[in-house]
Amino acid sequence: AEYMGIEPTLEQMFRFGQNHLLRRLSTQTGEAQKANRGFLTWYNGHLAKHPVATKMVTSTILFGGGDLFAQMLLKQDSTSKAPFDYKRLLRACVYGGLLLGPLSHVHYNFLDWLVLKQLHVRSSLVPVAKVFFEQFTYWSPSMIVLYFASMGAMEGQTWHTIKERVRTSLWPTLCANWMLWPAVQLVNFKFVPVPHQLNFVLIVSLGWSCYLSLVAAQTSSTKLVKQESKAHDQTAA
Question: 6, 120, 184, 234: most buried by Cβ count inside 10 Å?
Fold first, then answer.
């Protein structure tokens, strides 16, 4: 009898605790969703009022993040003892904010104008047409050249060195670009509104900018090794 009197009390305590936990989880989930909606509303408001400046800040953060990840990957290599390169991170942020952000804003609006208003491409073929013009005409080749040239200029390289860097890196980088971006941009142009297309690209670019940073670092270090070897040979002679 004594046991039967205690059992309901324990059951009630268990149910009370369970209900309290569920209410807390529901409240926290609702607060997180509300915060996310608040951030998106805030961001979209700035994007509508100041599209270029907002995209510049976003591009600075995400493209710089790609270089940060690249350096972290290099740090995981047990043979790499190089310190964290803050100047390299700054160069990536400058490229992302001052070059990629504003140029991409112009590019996506121009591409929309070209395909829809000038060429009057059928709606079902609009994503394919945009991918063709972006990847295989002017945008991808020119932006890869601009990336390696601007990185070289910010590193203080000579014009001859920059040209050699572009010459050796352009085609392999373009091939890697075409393995990723046509498929990504088909999805982007199909489902994402024009004001947010750069944001979609920048999120995917966390991995791509990481790759570019690794390539740029590799070509830069290769050039330094050649210069040191040449100087050593001249000294020996």
Answer: 184
- pTM here is 0.72
pLDDT at 27 over 50: yes
* Secondary structure of the chain in HEC code, one letter for each residue: CHHHHHHHHHHHHHHHHHHHHHHHHHHHHHHHHHHHHHHHHHHHHHHHHCHHHHHHHHHHHHHHHHHHHHHHHHHHCCCCCCCCCHHHHHHHHHHHHHHHHHHHHHHHHHHHHHHHHHCCCCHHHHHHHHHHHHHHCCHHHHHHHHHHHHHHHHCCCCHHHHHHHHHHHHHHHHHHHHHHHHHHHHHHHHHCCHHHHHHHHHHHHHHHHHHHHHHHHHHHHHHHHHHHHHHHHHHHC
pLDDT in tens, 54-88: 999 999 998 888 888 888 877 776 566 778 899 99
Give me the mean pLDDT over the 212-223 stretch: 64
Q: What is the pLDDT of residue 224?
A: 43
